[in-house]
User: What shape does this take?
Amino acid sequence: MAIEIKNNRFHIYNNEMSYVIEISEQDDLLNLYYGARIDAEDIRLPSRGHNIVCNAGDSNVLYSLSVLPQEYPSAGASDFRSPAYEIETDKGLHTPELKYKSHKIIDGKPPLEGLPAVYTENDNEAQTLIITMSDEAHGLEVRLYYTIFENLNVICRHSEVINISNPYMYLNNAQSVSIDFPAGEYEYIHLEGAWAREKHIDRNVVHKGTQGFESRRGASGHAENPFLMFFDKGSNEDYGNVYGISLVYSGNHRFIMEQEMYETVRVQAGINPFNFRFKLEKNESFVTPEAVMVYSSNGFSKMSNTFHKLYRTRLCRGKWRDKVRPILINNWEGTYFDFTKEKLLAIADEASKIGIELFVLDDGWFGRRNDDTSSLGDWFENKEKLGGTLAELANEMNKRGLKFGLWFEPEMASPDSDLYRAHPDWAISVSNVKPHLCRHQLILDYTREDVRDYIVNRITDILGSANIEYVKWDMNRNMSDVYSLNLPSDKQGEFYHKYILGLYDVLERITTAFPDVLFEGCASGGGRNDAGMLYYMPQNWTSDDTDAVERLYIQYGGSLVYPASTVGAHVSAVPNHQTGRISSLSMRGTVAMNGAFGYELDLSALGDNELNEMKKQVEFYKGIREIVMTGDYYRLLNPFTSRHSAWMYVSEDKKKAVVYYVVKEARPENEAVYLKLKGLDEKAKYTINGETKSGRTLMNYGIVIDSTEHDCDNMIFELQSM
Ligand code: GLA
Assistant: This one.
């Protein structure tokens, strides 16, 4: 790995990948190449352009920012494509033009202050290039950061915009990354969805004009995950140049692709410019969130595994990062708000008998909350409902051999809460305008330090009051009526971002104060299932949809970028509460054993047969969870395009593997399935179902599944090399 500069060309490379930037004769920063490893001195820019494109005013009509590929394109200085940033100075100047000023190369990777980011544990894991660009007339400097990893095809980018000399200026847009890909035929995938239907794969051909996706919800959102896969047309799991871009950010985002007249495609990702306007006083700077770019020359699978490894080991943090996660029972779908201490303990008794390790008490334990119309913000235990204190309840759980965990929704206030009655100005709303409620609740103004301090104190008190070893951090509505009494009128455009910075501040303080607690993020399921949250919480409640068939889609889509260790997955009751579908316990178990596994139903209402089957599932999962948490992941059969779904995990040393196969939708007279495995050692012999087969047979011929199929048929194969 290295970052070199020769003949005004930066070559950022490792063994498999190159990224080349050129400082042009006019000191523009040009984006020459991104892809499989090359020799940087061998390439040249194509010449394009004619008289109608603007040029620098000299004789070289072929040199024009209108068509040149650029690293961080400015607005209004003759590049008519989408700008990477937009400013307006106190004098109204808004056509800056950045020129190269200086650069610095450092070992390791500097943190992004106040923002989540990928990190290194050792300086020799990565190198960082920082290029400073400037525009004196506009009193502006921009620093571009590029970190390359030695052993992973990862480049992390972000930028920093600095007001050097204006009394003040507004930043109206600041993207984390901008890349100009050469003319070509491309496709892209994004993960679209809705509440309880998150992370569905949507694949499209890139066409002329601008296309993309975004969130304006104040959160990354259920509808569009902040992740883009941009790739050569026709790429698949094992073939093609694939570029994944994941934003380490939990707020409003935007991803665009703009194919222009010469067929090149500008790809950008960053904070959504929607209602974004940041005031920078003299010498103040703005740091964009980080964009993590993963390159694969071999299709989707390699890209996913690179993201998985990076996010599992260099984004997630803390004690639980490298640990297998406890198998949990959550009472939400089992009782909803309607529970008593006796009921909870009856569930816990069964949980403990079948080997479950953690009891999670969900919504309804605080204030007067017996439905979703009240008490958010009143983070005081309801002793009457709990039949005592949380400490006593935790103690009862511990006596049964279970850890105890608790649900919070700390960013909210119910209008019917003591907190809101005492501090109506703490909620986001416009004065004298009746705010829009979602799920009967308002959002607290996390741009305010007093609000953040209050919440940190309340949660600290509760977590300190009992042996609480797990927290589910929920967030159940998107932002409307965005206005903060805390901000002057010329800074209202900072609200969305400052809210997220406030959230990160609270998360940092709480997770630091309770380093042993396992935190799980949640936002009505996957409404904030993004890389930003994973920095604070190593797992996320994937979706409020616990139906096994629906989960095949959701988990398959999510696996493109997020590792299984971050995926909360539970077995729930049938008929399923979201879809009414009845699937077998066996299938529900198989599908849920793909992440942080658990149950979410009333165990005390089940008969012995089901409990015995669950006991076996729990035991089985304990045997495979290490490989599920840390193994390489391969998608084998795509539920979006097939009646079946299959996937597998392979241990890093390739000695063990676990293969899953599920019939999503049976049909009579079905074809035999040749399930071709991946990622094994070709030459090794593996035991599988009492037989011995070579890695190459298993990968090239596959496992033949020729039984008559029925809905919910499923198999898990364990492989062990000899
Ligand atoms: C959200 C979560 C659920 C549950 C409820 C409680 O919908 O996603 O898992 O915690 O809130 O109100």
The chain has a mean pLDDT of 96.
